[in-house]
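Teaching soon. Invent one.


***
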Amino acid sequence: MRTIQFLIWHKTQNKETNKGNRFLKSILLILVLSVFTYSLSCQTLPADASKEIMQNRELYEIFIEDNRISDAGVFLAKIAVVFWNNSIYDSAIYYFEKAVDIFEEIEEYDKLNSLYTNLGAIHQETSNFKKSIKYYNQSLEISKQGKDHEAIAIKMLDLSTAYSMNNQFFMALDLSNQALTLARSNQNHTFILMSINQISEVYKNAGNKWKTMEYYLRFNHYRDSVEGNVYDLNALLITEKRKFELTEGVEIAEAQPIKQKTKIEQQDKIADQSKDIDDFLTEKKKEAFESFTKEIDETEKFDSLDTASEKVEEKHQKLDIKAFFTRENFVIIL
């Protein structure tokens, strides 16, 4: 009996201790925020923005004293938004992260979802794409726990944009197509159009002109079909691709010096010897392939074509992945 009484007393004491620790942490945070906010007063802020920050900080302190932790976290986020709207990014990130600490501790995932999205957006805005990807991923994982398909599609497209801006185009395309599949399964015309547009943007960032145009045409076709204007998409794509190839061919021919003829012939010869590899190369990779083969001693003999292919493939793996997207036979099936 005494043992049980002791355990109950001990548990009660632990709860009181935890409350005390949380209160001390809150007081310490108030002091830190007070000093931080004072230091920020030296920065250029409109009078109304400065006033809004001070009001939100006072409300934060009131809610902390009343042990209304969730409400206090909301006002930290509001302070962050004021700084963000005034392009003071370091301060905005600071307050968003403090809000995240609160909501992670009390496990309020809906609010965390919004905060992760905001942190992803602000890091994307400041070109810190790795952190942007990190926070967008965290937001997407929370969204996947629910059944809001629109929210999931939005997070996928946000993440796709961050990957694309970080030159991770395969990941960007994969997420865009996942969002497109999800939107189609729900017949959500808005998100179908957003996903097709995002695919076009990824190809644009990757430098693939034709695929950019193709998905631009697909976007217009779907929008027109929703509005009742139906026409043959495949026929349009065939016609436009012929025009594109003709235009691109003229540009390439005019820009190609005659002195490059010998190099092109040598390149074709190499391609004939390793057709499977050549089909996989872009113009950029072909040039690297030619440069690489010239470095090999002409007297060196390979035991087999496989050995040569292995050496070539080793070189190719070091090339910029961005070059893959200049292949016109790269197809994402809609």
About this structure: The chain has 15 helices and no strands. The chain has a mean pLDDT of 75. The longest helix spans residues 2-40. The radius of gyration is 29 Å.
